[in-house]
Amino acid sequence: MSQYDAVFVGLTLLDIAGRPVSAIPAGGGVQFIEQIRLNPAGGSLNTANFSQHFG
């Protein structure tokens, strides 16, 4: 049987951020942006990342 130092169970989310936004398009409209960034987040993921970096 495998043995682990820690196990993190919980919700993991993905935040999507776009920039720059000069204006919000009217209903049903589209506006192009230069950059989209994906940021993983959530309680269990944040705890696991912290534990990985700081032991």
Kindly report the oligomeric state of this protein: single chain
The secondary structure category is: alpha+beta
Number of strands: 2
Query: What is the molecular shape?
Result: elongated
Uncertain ranges: none
Strand order of the largest sheet: 1-2
What is the count of distinct domains? Answer: 1
First-last Cα distance: 23 Å
Taken in chain order, the helices and strands follow as EEH
Biggest β-sheet strands, sense, barrel: 2 strands, antiparallel
Please, what is the average pLDDT? 86
Total helix count? 1
Kindly state the percentage of residues in helix: 10-25%
The whole-angstrom Rg is: 18 Å
Strand content: 25-35%
Concise overview:
This protein has 55 residues and is an alpha+beta fold. It is 22% helix and 25% strand.
Structure keywords:
55 residues, alpha+beta, two-stranded antiparallel ribbon, 1 helix, 2 strands, elongated
Task: Describe the protein in words.
By secondary structure, this protein is of the alpha+beta class. It has one domain. 22% of the residues lie in helices and 25% in strands. The chain is built from one helix and two strands. It has one helix spanning 43-54; strands spanning 13-19, 35-41. The protein has a two-stranded antiparallel ribbon with strand order 1-2. The protein is elongated and about 55 Å long. The two termini are 23 Å apart.
